[in-house]
Structures are given as C-alpha cells and as structure tokens.
Amino acid sequence: MSIAKEVVLRHRESGYLRFDIPEALCTHYAAEELTRELERVEGVYRVGFNQGAGKLAVRFHDAYCS
User: Fold this and answer.
1) Taking 90 as the threshold, does the pLDDT of residue 36 lie above it?
2) pLDDT of 9 over the 90 cut
3) d(CA 6, CA 14)
4) Which residues contact 13 (CB under 8 A, 6 or more apart)?
5) What angle (nearest 5°) sits at the alpha carbon of residue 35, between those of residues 50 and 44?
C-alpha cells in the first residue's frame, strides 16, 4: 500500500484541513520536509504538525488554493 493512501483527511472546512498522518511520516526529517513543502504552496499561511499525535493541520486562503 502506498504511504500516501494512509494519510486520512479528518476534517475540512473553508481554509482549513486536518489530517491523520501515518507513523512513517512522523519522523523528524519527514515532518520537517512535509511542513516545508506545504508552506511553499501559494495561499498556505500556517502548517501545524503534531508528530507525537500524528496530526497535520493546514490553514490556507481559499482564494489561492483549491
């Protein structure tokens, strides 16, 4: 199974997404890389990654991100 298929969208609302992240992506290096890449997306203004809980939250401007 692809690791991407293990990422589960838990909550979605305008300008906000929250995901459950598999343990394999909760390493220090993976969390830093994922956060860095998401912050590069135009319209994303905050990325929160709780490695211990395996949670990722992304806040973005709806006008820039679909």
Assistant:
1) yes
2) yes
3) 23
4) none
5) 110
Average pLDDT over residues 21-36: 92
pLDDT of 1 higher than 80: no
* Count of CA atoms in the C-beta half-sphere (13 A) of 10: 12
What are all long-range contacts of 42-51, with beta carbons under 8 Å and residues at least 24 apart?
49/21, 51/26, 51/27
Q: Which helix (H) or strand (E) holds 34?
A: helix 28-39
**Tokens 């199974």, residue located:** 1
Q: How high is the pLDDT of residue 2?
A: 84
- How many residues are given for the chain? 66
